[in-house]
Amino acid sequence: MSHLALLPDWIVGLSGWAYGLLVLGCLLTALLRKREPSQALGWALAIVFLPVIGPLFFLLFGWNRVSRTLRVKRTHHGQWVEDERIAALAAHVGDLHHVEPLEGRWGGLSRMLEDLGQGPRRGGNAVELYEDGTRAFEAMGEAIAAAKEHVHVEFFIFRGDDLGRRAIGLLADKVREGVEVRVIVDALGSIGGWKALRELQQAGGRVESFLAPLRRPVSPQLRNHRKAVICDGRVAFFGGLNVGREYLGRWWQKGSEWCDLHVRVEGAAVWNLQWMFVEDWDYCTGEFLGVPRYFPPIEAMGDSALQVLVGGPDTRPNPIRQAFLGAFSRAERSILVVTPYLVPDLALRDALKLAAMTGVEVDLVTLSSPPDKWWPYWCGWYYTEELSAAGVRVWSHEPGMMHAKAVVVDGEWAMLGTANLDNRSMFLNFEQMAVFDRKADVERIEAALQRIRGRSVLRDPAEVARRSWPWRLVVQTSRLLAPIL
Fold it and tell me: Quick one: which of 124, 194, 252, 361 could link to 334 by a disulfide (CB 3.0–4.6 Å)?
C-alpha cells in the first residue's frame, strides 16, 4: 500500500498544489532571469521533467537570487554620491592623483570602465609584485604590525590552521594596542576558520561574514571572492592569496607546489580598495565608514598608475568582464592569460578565438592534474578543443596548483587580481582586479606570467579523443555545469 494512501485526501491534494506552484515559480524564474536561451531551456526541461530533483537543483544552483539587502548595496554607490557625508569626503579627497587615461585604445578602455562606475586611473603609487607566498605574508605582517589606526581585512578563505592562527594573533595584538581591526570573510569559504576567528572577536576585533545564506535570503552560489588587506588607508595588498598554509607555496594536501601572485600597493590607489571595503562592510553591518579618518591624505609614493576594478552580481554589466572583453578585442600582437579555472562564456571565447584567427598570439595557462576542483578542470578540457581549433594555445601548469589570475595584452596593458576566466567570476562572485599600464609594471607582470608558462606543457586537443570513454563522457557532460563553474 502506498504511503500516500495513509494520508488524508486534502493533504495529498494540498501537497500536489504546492508542488505545482513550486514548479511554476521555478519555471517562470528560469524563463525571466536566464539571459542565454540555452540556459533557460536547459533549466526549464530539468524543472519539468525531473520531479523534485529538477526544482531542488534550480533553487540551489540556478536561482542566483539577489536579496533585498544586496539590491540596497547595488544602489548605495549612486545614492552616496548625493549624500552630504560623501560630498564632505570628496572635498577632503580632492582629485587624489587622478591622472587622465592614456591616449589611444587603452585610454578608451579606461574611460569605458569609469563610465561603468569604476574609480579613475590613479597615479603616484609604489607597487611590488610577489610570486612567493611566504614573502607576501611577511610583507602583510609587517604592514599590519606597523598600523597605527585601523586594519581592514577581507578574504574568501580564512583557515584556522597555523598560518591563520598566527594572523589572528597578530590582529588581536593590534586590537590590544588600540588599533581598530575589521575582518570580512566569506560565509562558506571560511566556514572552517570560524572557531579561530572567534578568538579575534573575543579580543575586541570585529569579524563579519559576507553572504551567509542562513542569515540572508541569498543564493549560496553568490560568494565574496575578494582578497585585500588595507592598513591605515595608506598601504594595501590584493591578489590571489587567501589565508591558509597552502598559500605559502606548498600544497600540503597534494604534496606539490602552489603558484600564486599578490601585489602590495602604497599610494592613491589604496583609497579605491578602502572604498571597496567600506561598501562591503556597510552591506554586512549597516555601519558607514566613508568618513575622512579612514581616507587619509596620501602623497605620491611612486610613479605607477592603477585603476581598481570591483565587480559582482550587484554590478550590471560586470566591469571586470567588460575589461577582459575590451582588452581581448584591442589586442594586436599577443594575449597571455593565467587562470586556474578555464570556463569562459560564449562572448569571452569568441573574443579569444577572433583574436587568434586575426594573427594575435593567444596563450592561456590553466590547471594541470591534480587540481583542487575537478569539475572546472574537466570543463576546461572541453573548451580546450574549441579554443585550440581557432589557434589559441592552452597550457597545463605542471608543478602543482596554479592559483594566479592575471592577463597581459601586447606587453602594454595588464590586469591582476582575484577573477578567474570563468562564469563564476564573471556572474556569481564578488571580485576585485587592478589594471596596470606603466611599462615597468606590465613588464614585471608579464615576466611572472612567462615564468608560469615556462613551467607548463602545451595541451594537445586530440588528447581528449585518445582518453577512455568514461573520461570523455565526464568532459562532455561537465559543460552542463559551466554556468555555475
Answer: 361
